[in-house]
Amino acid sequence: MGEIVAQRLADARKSSKGEILELPTDPELRSQCIRLGLSVGERFCCVERLPGGTVVAQAHRQEIAIGRGLADEISVLFD
Predict the structure, then answer these.
(1) pLDDT tens profile 32-65
(2) Which residues, in sequence order, are CB contacts of 2 under 8 Å at separation 6+?
(3) φ, ψ (nearest 5 deg) of residue 72
(4) Which CATH architecture best describes the domain 7-78?
(5) Less Cβ around it within 10 Å: N or C end of the chain?
(6) Which of 39, 5, 29, 4 is nearest to 57 (CA)?
(7) pTM assigned to the model
């Protein structure tokens, strides 16, 4: 079996898909993710990359714009 290599959501490219492995440990950032509807095990698709590093991800049939700082703190596994 291969080793699972986690990456950051900030590394997502347009049309990439994956699963959220880990949310930030900082309580404020973690609650921000939860308010956006992001949780561990959640599937997502990167819909767009905006200037400045913002990632627009689709999860739960809604699109969420996630700033570079927060996206850097979210561990994901790309398909």
Answers:
(1) 898 888 999 999 999 999 999 999 999 988 999 9
(2) none
(3) -70, -25
(4) Roll (2.30)
(5) N
(6) 39
(7) 0.89
